[in-house]
Write a sequence for this structure.
């Protein structure tokens, strides 16, 4: 058992490889609001075994879910691996069986036919189920109380795509879940399967389409009446996989396509808007206005991941890769296929979030991890070369940016907006984020007043351990947790947890 001595597996990013709990986290500053009751969940890659091939990229670790339960001013912590088919197969074998990221041709022969999904990218609560998500496979259901794994979930057989996105959207007005799978017929295929599930979690719509080329479709956008699929030139190729190469490569010779499709329409053609190559990863929100679709995303001029190479061998360009919150505007009333891009902030930022009650509709506030640009020689290098040391709030109505500096030798993970109980306006609530403390090698949990992001924290809690970089998360309020707890005895697989 030995992990490679490379940044991916060293220092703060060394695998944690533990499960456990800490009751009543220590509050080192401020007080935990007593009206903040519920649970904050986050998931990230934490490999159970060293890479089969001797090295690996950061995105390929086994999914580790953490839960911070808030109740009457105290917070309890629990963390547990998702028992995916991959995880169980490797634990039974006592060794790694799966090779390079999304490359089944590099696996041990004994792993054939076993899902390679790691459930390490996002957490979703919908239709009374908590699902751990990875875009190359089906969701895996876990219990939101114990974090024990219930098993893969295919919507009672209605999910016919081989994959399901890690970034589904919930229509706040109806409770409908909108999601898709890319490479839906298998790795590197251009097929996209689009689904909608009702508020109870039953798939009620399915439609298949083809992208202009095969690529990573990591996120998408949903408005009240439309879906937008961003096709960016981080391309996949089956022969490259068979040759042992990386799944994705950056191809700046290809344009960006933004595919617009009316929701729940089985026959309307996809309208493709076309623009210069750029990398767009995560969506903040999208909405419609007088025939125009506004799509807010983090956008860079080139791919943000240096471990996905330029297809012609050019070196990674860290300056071009820097992402900025930007707005794509698509005018569906005009016959042309172009679109505009407007930068919404001059401060680099990623991992955008909103008050989810405003998803798919016009909104005012967005929250994201941002970069101050302050040099810090004590900081270790990251795999992207970026350090997100600010938590920012963008006001789309005024253009104002408020930000909180998380400290020297520190970085923030994805911020989460949690509405205040009884809130009457969009911005009333809290922003919660995990903070990496590199000098002391531990993690803090930071709580900010969402209406005073640039003020003193409401509270800072400390963990007696470090949680390596996670990806995305969600919040369940106390009412949702109580409803689930009351219903657990009605589901035998959960009653036995």
């Amino acid at each position: 058992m030995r992990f490679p001595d490379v940044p991916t597996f060293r220092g703060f990013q060394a695998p944690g490889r533990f499960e456990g709990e800490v009751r009543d986290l220590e509050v080192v500053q401020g007080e935990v609001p007593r009206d903040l009751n519920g649970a904050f969940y986050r998931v990230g890659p934490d490999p159970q075994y060293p890479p089969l091939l001797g090295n690996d990229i950061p995105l390929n670790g086994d999914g580790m879910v953490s839960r911070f339960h808030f109740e009457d001013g105290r917070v309890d912590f629990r963390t547990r691996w998702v028992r995916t088919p991959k995880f169980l197969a490797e634990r039974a074998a006592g060794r790694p069986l799966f090779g390079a990221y999304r490359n089944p041709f590099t696996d041990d022969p004994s792993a054939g036919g076993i899902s390679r999904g790691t459930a390490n990218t996002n957490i979703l609560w919908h239709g009374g189920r908590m699902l751990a998500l990875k875009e190359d496979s089906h969701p895996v259901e876990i219990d939101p109380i114990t974090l024990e794994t219930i098993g893969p979930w295919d919507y009672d057989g209605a999910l016919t795509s081989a994959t399901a996105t890690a970034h589904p959207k919930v229509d706040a007005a109806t409770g409908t879940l909108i999601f898709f799978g890319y490479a839906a017929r298998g790795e590197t295929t251009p097929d996209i399967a689009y689904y909608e599930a009702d508020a109870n979690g039953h798939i009620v719509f399915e439609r298949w389409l083809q992208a202009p080329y095969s690529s990573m479709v990591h996120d998408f956008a949903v408005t009240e009446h439309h879906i937008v699929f961003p096709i960016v030139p981080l391309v996949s190729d089956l022969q490259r996989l068979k040759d042992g190469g990386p799944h994705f490569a950056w191809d700046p010779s290809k344009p960006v396509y933004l595919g617009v499709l009316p929701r729940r329409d089985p026959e309307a053609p996809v309208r493709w808007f076309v623009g210069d190559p750029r990398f767009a990863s995560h969506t903040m929100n999208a909405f419609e206005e007088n025939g125009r679709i506004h799509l807010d995303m983090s956008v860079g001029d080139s791919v943000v991941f240096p471990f996905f190479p330029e297809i012609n061998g050019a070196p990674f360009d860290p300056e071009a890769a820097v992402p900025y919150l930007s707005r794509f505007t698509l005018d569906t009333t005009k016959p042309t296929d172009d679109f505009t891009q407007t930068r919404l902030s001059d401060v680099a930022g990623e991992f955008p979030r909103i008050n989810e009650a405003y998803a798919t509709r016009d909104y005012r506030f967005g929250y994201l991890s941002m970069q101050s640009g302050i040099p810090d020689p004590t900081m270790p290098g990251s795999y992207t070369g970026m350090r997100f040391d600010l938590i920012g709030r963008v006001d789309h109505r005024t253009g104002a940016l408020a930000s909180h500096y998380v400290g020297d030798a520190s970085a923030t993970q994805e911020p989460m907006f949690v509405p205040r109980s009884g809130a009457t306006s969009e911005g009333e609530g809290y922003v919660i984020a995990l903070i990496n403390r590199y000098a002391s090698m531990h993690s803090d949990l930071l709580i900010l007043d969402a209406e005073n992001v640039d003020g003193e924290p409401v509270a800072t809690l400390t963990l007696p351990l470090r949680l390596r970089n996670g990806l995305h998360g969600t919040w369940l309020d106390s009412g949702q947790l109580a409803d689930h707890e009351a219903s657990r005895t009605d589901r035998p697989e959960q009653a036995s947890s």
In short: The two ends are 31 Å apart (CA to CA). The CA atoms of residues 68 and 98 lie 31 Å apart. The helical segments are 85-93, 238-242, 318-321, 478-487, 492-495. The mean pLDDT is 95.
